[in-house]
Amino acid sequence: MKIDDNINFNAFFYPKTIAMIGATPSPGKWGFIIMMNIIKGGYTGRLFPVNPGYREIFGLPCFPSVNNIEEEVDLAIIAVPAANMIPAIDDCIKKSISSAVVITSGFSETGAEGTMLEKEMVEKASRGGLRIIGPNTMGLFSAQVSLTALMPPVTPLKGKVSMISQSGNVGTQILGWGREMGVGFDKFVSSGNEGDIKCEDYLRYLGSDSQTEVIVLYLESLEEGKTFLDIARDIVKEKPIIVFKGGKTDSGMAAAASHTGAMAGSINIYQSAFRQTGLIEVSSTEEIIDTAGAFLSYPIPMGNRIGILTRGGGWGVITADACEASGLQVPKLPEEVIKKIDEILPQYWSRGNPVDMVAVITSEPYLKCLEILMSCDVIDGIISLGGALGESFGKSISDPNVLSIMGLSQEDVTRFRAELAAESSMINKTTKELMEKYKKPIVNVSIGGGKRTIEEHKFITYPTPERAVRVMKYLVEYGDYLRQRNLYEKRRFR
User: Fold this and answer.
1) Which terminal residue of the chain, N or C, has fewer Cβ atoms less than 10 Å from its own Cβ?
2) CA separation for the pair 148, 318 (Å, rounded)
3) CB-based contact 246:219 (threshold 8 Å)
4) More confident site: 355 or 312
């Protein structure tokens, strides 16, 4: 996929030198906070603060202008008032800087006067060979050079997801949630008003980026909808695109217009276009990270027939209801499968799908049932509830009251917790191996066991069956799209 040769994306995401125009030692100002985040994030290149009022900031020499920096500058990050923006742009052009991130607000999102100022800035930059992210952006992140040029104090995990967000607040919050769930990012950009570089430009770049395996979009509007969809249609053949659309209602569209200065458009048109293009449209911000984690963790299923394995009957009922409500089938098990499970579980087990293990808590029967279901021809994927209980037990037995009642020493507890952790690790390892062997997803729900993340276990685990069902639905929808266009290939487990 051909990238726009006029945009130096390497300067944005792999800069060796950065000039922070508007840097300041005054806490509470963006020139302070962004500088702090870049330094704290461990940026691997050289950083030059620029402010005529200081000789040194954060122990770094401070320059009155970018033109006083003797070295070549790859990227300028600009956080000066809007009224001072044109002189800053002039300085960048004189320095032959190719790329700038304009943090400053006060442009097209504010009305006609701001729109005129934004147009003047972009036209001047374009004539001088300077490309702009923003204005009115909260910055960018690039894992490969440890660049956290963001306004909020967020330190994303490094990983294989990349995100384009038309809201800086939403996008940086998603980065924070990703850290909590163990979902790491390689690149992130808050596109702001998109006065120059548009959403479709970033999308085209990420589609060709070897470091990006899953793309996430937060969209409020598109100026070049057809171009965007043509680009997306090519990308989804190789990697999934997850999209959350803001501005679905009249109130939301009005808010979007005041937020970035762009009109949102009809949600029905967007949703229809997303479906036809193969984009995965999620329905809540929570689902953004859930679904990105699923596509990093699990193979794409061949169909929508779901097996449910649970240690408690009620959770199986809830999961079955959620599957049917989401358009997933919960098929009857073949008689030969039931006979195999008869040899493992007590005679009063459910003898159907969901497979209720009737409170059998040891790992061996669980893993045997899991493999029997994985090998079943009428099952395309499994939702497993409460597979590893060791974390829950380990936490409980550490309670001082429990220690006292059971007469256990701290050494006993330490040993027991180590045994439980080893069992949990073995279950996770076997789960991964089964997915590799059968090329089917086992979407895990941690009932009472706490949060388990990709970072810890190489696949994401969900806290509720409803969330597991929703991501299974999106995995199935992506597989359906690929098969209908003869593009389906079994996804290699990561």
Assistant:
1) N
2) 41
3) yes
4) 355
